[in-house]
């Protein structure tokens, strides 16, 4: 019998576990339901992969991110561990084929998107899967009070209840507040769960916030002061392009990354950055999930995120090699006013949501009573233009419809090319004899893709070109020609954003939206905005400790590295200097009091931070008081 450590050494070549990993693995091996909170880069996947390898059967991993699923499967396969994934974009035949392999093959892991758990085909194969562990990744998605609520996660418990035997559940997340943690336990019905909360402190990351009149100048200054690899997060695609272009003009190798690029462009730019051919990747929040580049020295936010969960997760991509790194947040007054206005924008009126639903169904040509479980190409820009709508109203109404469980929207979906033969064997043989130039590609398809003769399957034109010794452009041309001849059906690869209707179209006026829950979600969102604003203006407290407390980590100590800790350290005042500043302040306060601005002007020769430190002390000691901006003696 192998031990968890021997598995770690064999497949991961690590000599020891990190943090609470070993304790989490032991809890799972003992058959306990477990909730694990591990910070970004904390090695969550090892916590379910190792116990699953030590147990008989298959580990079912629920994950909402297709790219992350594909990465995990590829990583496991490179280690010689058989793994599978089921996600949107796969044909019915491919899903069935994958489930058959999972049920009757020597596979240890099956990654599934939460939507797929509800299909009739998955339920049909569920009894044959021999599940040894249910791992729920990004478990905060199950909570309506979290920042990334996804309704299909609520149905995970039905899967567990449909099993005829007990299976331990491991819920994993990098960022969940105490309220969300309890909601995960309740919604997944975890039985007396073992809860592991690793410290949210990243001791090698220095957090800082700058109120910058010119963010571009400050960005350049930071990149010139701190050498090494960097991520710059921006709010819009246009911003990513403009800033990347500006950085290259200053001889800083940079490129942009966002969901509007093709998957090939995204992969190429991501790889160039990982290989240090690009120093800076300027991106939207579409970048970063599943990327483990250890030597990132700075993560700079050019705009303020709408919650600490997102900020902590993105900032945590810095310094995974354990060396000192910097998480920098830039803002100015406009950002604050935009943040304060977000709750009203993010939560449109119920009537506005119903109106957008009506327009959406009309735009996609879906009659009342049909459309359920269908995917539709969706051009957001054309939709907004055709109906003369505000783009933010549309985006936020779509989010509301997602959270009510009517639709899902994916703006960066990748659907591979799909091919299925339509000609029978006799016609196919005759065609190949009469058209020899097409014979290599036909044989390549039949030999490479199992089931392609009887079913439509996903195909890589690039792989076909390589195996057939042809150029990719020629392969695509021949496939189109074969379709014209009636030999096969060829659906070309596409990356068009997709809307998935989970139910048949309802009449907009009868659309049911739970107004009480909707109002509560808005309230929670407003609270998260308020916490983000508080973080911006934090002065006398450690930023790392503030983040830790937000996530329920009350045991974290001051980091001594953030901008506030450094300021406090530099603010050490000797007793002699303290008394001198105290005397100066008291002498300049007349009996009728003095306006605080006048007192500051009269104290221009004193260090500003030391002045405020002494002034706050005198107020706390009730030697002075401030009334409507006027300082008075007590």
Brief digest:
This protein has 634 residues and is an alpha/beta fold.
Characterize the structure shown:
With 634 residues, the chain is an alpha/beta fold. It folds into five domains: 4-197, P-loop containing nucleotide triphosphate hydrolases (Rossmann fold), CATH 3.40.50.300; 205-331, 3-Layer(aba) Sandwich (Rossmann fold), CATH 3.40.50; 339-414 and 497-525, Arc Repressor Mutant, subunit A, CATH 1.10.10; 417-491; 571-633, Arc Repressor Mutant, subunit A. 45% of the residues lie in helices and 16% in strands. The protein has 26 helices and 22 strands. A seven-stranded parallel β-sheet has the order 3-4-2-5-6-1-7, with helices on both faces. Strands 8-13-12-9-11-10 form a six-stranded parallel β-sheet, with helices on both faces. Strand 5 (131-136), helix 7 and strand 6 (169-173) form a beta-alpha-beta unit. The radius of gyration is 29 Å and the shape is globular. The model has no long low-confidence stretch (mean pLDDT 90).
């Amino acid at each position: 019998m192998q031990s968890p450590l021997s598995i770690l050494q064999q497949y991961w070549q690590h000599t020891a576990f990190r943090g609470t990993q070993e304790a989490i693995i032991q809890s799972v091996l003992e058959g306990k339901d477990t909730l694990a909170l591990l910070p970004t880069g904390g090695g969550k996947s090892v916590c379910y992969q190792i116990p699953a390898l030590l147990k008989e059967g298959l580990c079912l991993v629920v994950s909402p991110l297709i790219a992350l699923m594909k990465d995990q499967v590829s990583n496991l396969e490179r280690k010689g561990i058989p793994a599978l994934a089921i996600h949107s974009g796969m044909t019915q035949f491919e899903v069935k084929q994958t489930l058959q392999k999972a049920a009757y093959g020597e596979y240890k892991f099956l990654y599934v998107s939460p939507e797929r758990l509800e299909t009739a085909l998955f339920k049909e194969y569920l009894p044959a899967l021999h599940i040894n562990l249910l791992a729920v990744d990004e478990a905060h998605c199950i909570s309506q009070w979290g920042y990334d609520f996804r309704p299909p996660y609520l149905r995970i418990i039905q899967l567990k209840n449909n099993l005829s035997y007990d299976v331990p559940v491991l819920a994993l997340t990098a960022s969940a507040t105490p309220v969300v943690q309890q909601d995960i336990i309740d919604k997944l019905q975890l039985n007396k769960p073992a809860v592991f909360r690793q410290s949210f402190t990243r001791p090698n990351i220095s957090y800082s916030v700058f109120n910058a009149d010119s963010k571009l100048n400050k960005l350049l200054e930071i990149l010139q002061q701190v050498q090494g690899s960097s991520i710059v997060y921006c709010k819009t695609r246009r911003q990513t392009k403009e800033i990347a272009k500006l950085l290259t003009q200053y001889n800083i190798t940079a490129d942009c990354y966002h969901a509007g690029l093709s998957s090939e462009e995204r992969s190429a730019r991501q790889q160039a950055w990982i290989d240090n051919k690009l120093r800076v990747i300027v991106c939207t929040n579409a970048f970063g999930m599943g990327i483990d580049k250890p030597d990132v020295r700075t993560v700079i936010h050019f705009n303020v995120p709408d919650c600490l969960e997102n900020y902590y997760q993105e900032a945590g991509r810095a310094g995974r090699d354990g060396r000192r790194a910097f998480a920098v947040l830039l803002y100015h007054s406009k950002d604050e006013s935009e943040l304060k206005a977000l709750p009203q924008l993010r939560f449109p009126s119920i009537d506005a949501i119903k109106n957008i639903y009506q327009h959406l169904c009309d735009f996609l040509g879906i009659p009342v009573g049909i459309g359920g479980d269908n995917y539709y190409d969706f051009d957001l820009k054309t939709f907004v233009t055709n109906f003369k709508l505000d783009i933010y109203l549309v985006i936020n109404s779509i989010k509301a419809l997602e959270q009510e469980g009517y639709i899902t929207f994916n703006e960066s979906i990748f659907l591979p090319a799909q091919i299925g033969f339509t000609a029978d064997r006799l016609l196919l043989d005759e065609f190949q004899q009469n058209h020899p130039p097409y014979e290599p590609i036909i044989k390549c398809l039949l030999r490479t893709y199992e089931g392609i003769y009887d079913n439509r399957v996903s195909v890589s034109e690039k792989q076909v070109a390589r195996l057939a010794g042809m150029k990719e452009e020629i392969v695509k041309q021949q496939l189109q020609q074969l379709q014209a001849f009636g030999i096969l059906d060829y659906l070309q690869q596409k990356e068009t954003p997709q809307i998935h209707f989970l139910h048949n179209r309802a009449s907009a006026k009868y659309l049911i939206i739970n107004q009480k829950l909707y109002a509560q979600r808005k309230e929670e969102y407003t609270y998260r905005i308020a916490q983000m604003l508080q973080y911006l203006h934090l002065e006398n407290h450690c930023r790392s400790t503030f983040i830790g407390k937000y996530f329920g980590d009350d045991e974290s100590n001051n980091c001594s590295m953030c901008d506030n800790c450094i300021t406090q350290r530099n603010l050490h005042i000797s007793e002699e200097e303290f008394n001198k500043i105290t005397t100066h302040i008291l002498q300049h306060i007349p009996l009728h009091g003095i306006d605080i601005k006048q007192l500051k002007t009269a104290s221009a020769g004193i260090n500003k931070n030391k002045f405020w430190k002494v002034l706050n002390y005198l107020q706390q000691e009730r030697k002075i008081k401030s009334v409507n901006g006027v300082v008075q003696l007590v």
